[in-house]
Design brief:
- The structure is a single chain.
- The chain has helices spanning 2-24, 26-40, 101-116, 120-131, and strands at 45-50, 58-66, 69-74, 82-89, 92-99.
- It has 138 residues and is α+β, with helices and mostly antiparallel strands.
- A five-stranded antiparallel sheet has the order 1-2-3-4-5, with helices on one face.
- It is globular, with a radius of gyration of 15 Å.
């Protein structure tokens, strides 16, 4: 029972940590999320970077495949972060729907929580998202 309660608390902590970081610094939020997911869940995560030769590479998209959906964050050169969810069946992308970033964070946190029930890697990723020290960005 304590384990189930801990899993619920982790999910709440993940939502709160992601929402707080997103609200304070969107660029850092995307970088932290991409780094954590890429390291902890490499089979489910794709991070797209652009730039290079004479400029610093920057993250332009983060995608994580959970269950039958591909959750994406797109980072345009100017403007805010755009979130979406794409239904995928047997490798075919069927329908993409835009989402508010707050909704995206809630859904992805829930999906990661469900995934963590069967995957130690996912549990580690959640703990990394919750346990990272949040620097005060003011």
């Amino acid at each position: 029972m304590a384990d189930l309660e801990d899993e619920g608390l982790i999910g709440i902590g993940v939502k709160a940590s992601l929402a707080r970081l997103y609200k304070t610094d969107q660029a850092r939020f995307v970088e932290e999320l991409a780094t954590t997911l890429e390291r902890s869940l490499p089979d489910e995560t794709q991070v797209e970077r652009k730039g290079g030769l004479f400029s610093e590479k920057r993250i332009v998209a983060v995608r994580i495949h959970l269950d039958d959906y591909l959750y994406s964050l797109e980072i345009p050169p100017k403007g805010g972060v755009a979130a979406s969810r794409t239904k995928v069946v047997r490798g075919i992308k069927l329908k993409t729907e835009p989402m508010a970033v707050d909704d995206w964070l809630a859904v992805v946190s829930d999906q990661l929580g469900r995934f963590a029930e069967t995957s130690q890697q996912a549990r580690d990723a959640l703990w990394n998202l919750v346990d990272k020290p949040q620097e005060d960005v003011t």
